[in-house]
Amino acid sequence: MKTLVFDTCFNKSYIVLSENNKIINAEIIQSTESNYHSAFLIPKIRDLLKTNNIQVKDLDAIGINIGPGSFTGIRAGITIARVMAQQANLKLIGITSLEILSKLAENKENTIVTLDARKNKVYFAQYKNSEEIISACLIDKEELIDKINNNTSIIADSSISAYLKEKNIDSVNYEISDYNLGLYLSEIVNNKLTLENDDFNWAKVKPLYIQKPSITKPKEIKNV
Question: What pLDDT, in 10s, does the model give residues 64-91?
Fold first, then answer.
């Protein structure tokens, strides 16, 4: 089974091509001064498939990070994934960014993943032995401290890692590490594909925003 997964929700883009759970290629895309990393996704996918003599129709499934994360990244990634899956009649599996990050925890017994959602809010999810016990949600930043105990592994971004450090709480800051998060996405997707009776219809995969994007209203034009 050939799967292609890609992720544009984080501070980098990730693309991974695999066959029968074996990695064929794994790419990490950085932003440049002039372009956000997701802008390079389509040509990178095209080049990766061409290099490996694979066409989109040869794939069995596509996996995609549905968020929460960069609003621009979420829209870009899911739009491309849905179009590819629809046109080639492929299975499409959506995975949350928090589930992907949970794989970074050394202590799987109790894992918290939390990301800055701004306005004194954080995205939050909790896992026990790799099983989700609290799905991705939005909580107050102050509430986060009450959910942490001595046996908790915490995965966070730079902002929340700094906040926790002020409270003398250690965490893994995924943004300053060299983890290839695409490999974790590929692993999760391939595991889900082994489950029976799961419906992986492309039309059911939608962005997980949790909160609405901030919209700035245009300023009124005054008569002069």
Answer: 999 998 888 899 999 999 999 999 999 9
Q: Cα dihedral angle (27, 112, 153, 157), rounded to 10 degrees?
A: 50
Q: Cα–Cα distance between 219 and 214 in angstroms, integer?
A: 15
The CA–CA distances, whole Å, from 196 to 191, 192, 193, 199, 222 equal 11, 9, 8, 9, 62
Task: List the one residue out of 107, 101, 105, 71 whose CA is nearest residue 188.
Answer: 101
**Exposed/middle/buried for residue 156 (C-beta within 10 Å: 0-12, 13-18, 19+):** buried
pTM for this entry:
0.90
